[in-house]
Amino acid sequence: NQISVDDVLAVLNPLWHSKNETASRLRMRLEKILDWARVRGYRRGPNPAVWRGNLDTQLTARNKIQKVVHLKSLAYAQVPAFLVDLQKQTGTSARALHLGILTAARPGEIRGAVWDEFDLETGVWTVPAERMKGRKEHRVPLSPQALELIKSLPVIDGSPLLFPAPRGGKKLSDMAMTALLKRMGVESTAHGFRTSLRTWAAEETEHLPIVAEMALAHAQESKVVAAYQRGDLFKKRTALLTAWATYLDQVPDPED
Questions:
Q1: Cα-trace Rg, the chain
Q2: Domain 76-249 coded CATH 3.40.630.30
């Protein structure tokens, strides 16, 4: 019952800037413990470890402390040549990575993709809300190249997944595509190809930024824009991803 805000700050302050993730988790743990103590009658009054309206007035916000770590990516001009090498690779991880590059989907969305999500007649992949980072259903337009790749995949008995792991039929490991890139000697993450697409769209096309952002299934930072932009710009995203796939099909200059 004697624990105060000053006591909580004495614990958090030494870690808050140097080990912010650890300190933040510690604060949440303290908040839960002190909530439990209040419910059980061991203390009275407000919880000194609560963030909003309490510690947020004493400690720097996490988003102003934590450094943004940019994932490694290939320059978009290097991606066509990379795809030539990728298509020489065998195995599920190579096909999964290829589809991820064509669709700009996150690696987790690719690894969890199941056949029932795909309408190959209309060329649409519908990722359900529970599998999306933003918890909102996302329709992905499939370019002719993406459709060709999907239709070439074998359907594995007993598994609904497009890309089941070689053993057991479960989802690919979250490190499978990373390991493939490492074996190929490529300085990029699977997620990094989304950056390649975004940069290409900005520097080489006339597609509006919002179209590229929606293709990446990014939430709109502006609440005003989000309030008025309620469509998913599907036709425009179709044009963008089709142009991207066409760009990737270009034959690399051997002298580059």
A1: 23
A2: no
